[in-house]
Amino acid sequence: MPSTAPTAVIDLDLPGPVVSRHVYGHFAEHLGRCIYGGFWVGEDSPVPNVRGIRTDVVQALRAMHIPNLRWPGGCFADDYHWRDGIGPRDQRPRMVNSHWGDVVEDNSFGTHEFMDLCELLGADPYVSGNIGSGSVREMSEWIEYLTRGDDSPMAALRRSNGRDEPWRVPFWGLGNEAWGCGGHLRAEQFASMARQYGTYVRNHGDNTVYRIAAGAAEDDYHWTETLMRSFDDLTGPDSRPGPFQAISFHYYTMTGSWGDKGSATRFTTDEWYLALSRAAHVDELLTRHSTVMDRYDPHQKVGLVLDEWGTWWNVEPGTNPGFLYQQNGLRDALVAAVHFDAFHRHADRLVMANIAQTVNVLQAMILTDPDTGALVLTPTYHVFEMNTAHHDAHALTVHLRDVPTTHAGDRPFPTISASATVTDDTALVSLSNLHAQDATTLVLDLRGRDVTGHTARILTAPSLESHNTPAAPTAVAPTTHDGVRPHPRGLQVDLPAHAYVTVSLDLA
Ligand code: AHR
Question: CATH: 3.30.70.270, 3.20.20.80, 3.30.479.30, 1.20.1540.10. Which one for 21-392?
Answer without folding.
Answer: 3.20.20.80
